Ubiquinone biosynthesis O-methyltransferase (Candidatus Blochmannia ocreatus), 234 residues
Amino acid sequence: MQKNINYKEIKKFDKTASQWWNISGPFKTLHQINSTRFHYIAKCSNGLFGKKILDVGCGGGILTEKLAKSGAKVTGLDISATTLEIAKTHALHQELNILYLQETIEDHSSHNVNTYDVVTCMEVLEHVPNPQSIINACAKIIKKGGSVFFSTLNRTIKSWLLVIIISEYLLNLLPKGTHNFNKFITPAELLTWIDATTLEEQNIIGLYYNPLTKKCILTRNINTNYILHTQRKK
């Protein structure tokens, strides 16, 4: 069976893998929005201490490490060996006990049913051939009552202007070609995929990042970046 992997995307991100922990480098925006995302996840999960968490598409471990520092038992999942080596090395230097695995979420779910208290899947769905396949796998590995978080980009004119034209081409906040507008996902599409699983929507919130102040806040406006909090049905 063909893997749910866009190898062109992996190759693209591997070119900048050494810069994952450069807070002024190509991943600086992720560093600047990290605390906002983390606090939302922690609040919706009623705390993270001692919980078993899976970070899907963990990359260099920016969110993964933040989750681990909260006292959670964290596994980071990615399919890029290059990126995972960066993540493992940085975690080692930070003296953090994180399990990093090179595996797709689909393969991981086949032997980890009902395993995790919390699953995070942040900025991943718009980079794979079949987003629904990832959502289905997340629904399998979460425990009953557990929370799954998906963050992605809405397919709107505003998101095209802000994320691609301004962020990638005018301000160089992201490497050019990071995003494909046609892969952006509307909330209606995401919720349709969610409805086909055992997951239920709990809350949807927008994420607003100001490149001038480098500040990130949560907002009711979901026409660009947004996070969906779901729970597995009891």
Notes: The CA atoms of residues 171 and 211 lie 9 Å apart. The chain has one domain: 7-232. The helical segments are 7-14, 28-44, 62-69, 81-93, 105-110, 131-141, 157-170, 187-195.
